[in-house]
Every structure is written in C-alpha cells, then in structure tokens.
Amino acid sequence: MDYKHFSHPHNLLIHRPYELGQQVTCSGCQFPCDNTTAAVHACHRCNFFLHDHCANAGRYVKHPCHKPHPLVLLPYPTYAGNTFVCNACGRPGKAFSYCCALCEFDLHVGCALLPVSVVNKDHQHELDLYYGAQVVPRRGSSNDQEYCNICRNVLEGRQWAYCCKTCDFNVHTACATTEVVPGLYEDDSPDCEAVEGQGAWAGAGVVAAEGGGNVVEVELTEAELAKLLFDMKLHIMAQNIATSGI
Ligand SMILES: [Zn+2]
Ligand SMILES: [Zn+2]
Ligand SMILES: [Zn+2]
Ligand SMILES: [Zn+2]
Ligand SMILES: [Zn+2]
Ligand SMILES: [Zn+2]
Predict the structure, then answer these.
(1) C-alpha of residue 187 to centroid of ligand 6, in Å
(2) pLDDT tens profile 37-62
(3) pTM of the prediction?
(4) Minimal CA–CA distance to 119: which of 183, 164, 185?
C-alpha cells in the first residue's frame, strides 16, 4: 500500500521497521526509526523515511504553549540557513517543524507531542511538563543556574522542562523521555495502536502518567489554510522589507 504524504513528491510505502533490514533515519525528526515506531513510511528512491508518528502528525495544531496562533507543520524550515531553533529544547532542526511564522516560533515534532506528564524511573513522583521560564534557581544556590537532575548539565530557564511539584527535581525533556514514544499523546488518537504502544513501553520504566494529551489537531479548510499561510508570508515579507530598510 502506498500513499502521498504532503512532505514528499513521491508516494510512500508503509513497512514494519524490521522489514527494512537496516537502521534508517527519519527525514521528519532526524532520529533513528527503531523498533519503538509502529511503522516506517518510506520512499526508497530518495532514502526518505518517516516514523509513523511523524507521518501522522497533524498539519495544524493548537498547542497550549502557543495560544494565540495555530502551529503549522512545515516539511522544512523556511528561514535563511534552512534551519530552525526549537523553542522547547533549544536545539536546531533541519526537517519538520511545527511553526508559527508570525512569531518565528518553532517546535520539533517530538517536542510538540511531549506528554503533559511522565513517570521516570529516576524519580518517585510524576513529573509535569513546563513550557519554560518556570524553573527557578535552586534555593540557596550561589549562582543563578539550574541543573538537570539526570544529566547534571545546565537547564536553561527558557527551555521546557519536566519538574516535580513536590520536590526540587527538574530535568530536560529529553532526559525524562528517552524511552517515551512521541505522538501517542495527541487528543485525537485514542486508537488501538496507541494502547499497544503504551503497553510496549510501560515495561521500559517510562510511562506517560496520563493518556490525555495537550495538543489538539485543528481542522482547516483549504481556503483557511491558504489565508493562514498567506498572512504568514505577508508578515515575513513585511518584516524583511522593514529590516532591509527598503
Ligand atoms: Zn520522526
Ligand atoms: Zn522520493
Ligand atoms: Zn525540540
Ligand atoms: Zn504565533
Ligand atoms: Zn538533562
Ligand atoms: Zn518528587
């Protein structure tokens, strides 16, 4: 079975990951397609592969971290340098992004689909997701740096973090969710695969504490989409004109 995905000019074939016989990298999120993904969507001609959750990521979402505007899934960054910096994890990205071009706000697909809370084997309490600026310096600390309780590296206040409400335990999103499969937390996907998936990684020591997600997929008509993109393009063009002083 093959089908057309908006991000690629050729039809994609759907495989089980083991059917590929080799480790491939997802062209959407740039992470390996290992056995945590239910399926790999492939164009063999181009060595183009997508995780199941990246291929099925909604094109327009309302995200609680960015309430004023819907985020649009872009197949590649539209910025100069063909790269974006993720507002959640602070790392660069070159492939899919959930973007608000009006605000130059971008998220990796995996970051956009992070669960609102997780249980991690390194901590006895449930950890809640904070959209940055919630991490306050440790009381009595001599400098104003906060550190991740798992990897011990600096936790930037403007980056997202998982924090314990009860104790002083704050960690990077990536450190808390190394075994969490993104994409199972969308409100609109309570299907059998999601349930199967949860069972699969419950044994891995990391589980989403609640099934409910925080991301709502938005249905837009083609006309609404055209208008949204048009508004964004206009805004970028207007900004370019303003900064180049023409
Ligand atoms: Zn992916
Ligand atoms: Zn192709
Ligand atoms: Zn990110
Ligand atoms: Zn915005
Ligand atoms: Zn960390
Ligand atoms: Zn705790």
Answers:
(1) 27
(2) 889 999 999 999 999 989 999 999 98
(3) 0.75
(4) 164
